[in-house]
Specification:
22% of the residues lie in helices and 42% in strands. The chain has 3 helices and 9 strands. Belongs to the HesB/IscA family.
Length: 121
């Protein structure tokens, strides 16, 4: 999992504006919506043993181990428009989405394809 410049900047702002000491963000997935799952994000006051840790653009992100196989290769972004702003996930493991945008369908990452892509890069 990686972060766009915009996501890293926004996460840094959120951490700095927090009322409590925060060291990063925890990302996961939960069963929700008509397509299957939705992304979750929570403050991290102290790392949770067993979580996968990613540091990108100077920002610490921990990934719930139950979500790791579904988030491999994902780029987290932050987008702003006239209608609002939100974090988005460009996830190569996404196989579908509901019409309202509340949830997505994810498949576990293809580890063989990821390894081949890295070898060719």
């Amino acid at each position: 999992m990686s972060l766009s410049d915009a996501a890293a900047e926004r996460i840094t702002e959120i951490i700095e504006d927090s009322d409590k000491p925060v060291v990063g963000l925890r990302v996961g997935i939960k069963n929700a919506g008509c397509a299957g799952v939705s992304y979750t994000m929570d403050y991290v006051e102290a790392p949770i043993a067993g979580d996968d840790h990613v540091e990108d653009h100077g920002v610490n992100v921990w990934v719930d181990p139950k979500a790791t196989m579904y988030l491999l290769g994902t780029v987290m972004d932050f987008e702003e428009s006239k209608m609002g702003s939100s974090f988005t996930f460009k996830n190569p493991n996404q196989t579908g989405a509901c019409g309202c945008g509340e949830s997505v369908t994810l498949a576990p990452a293809d580890l063989k394809a990821l390894a081949e892509a890295r070898a060719g890069a």
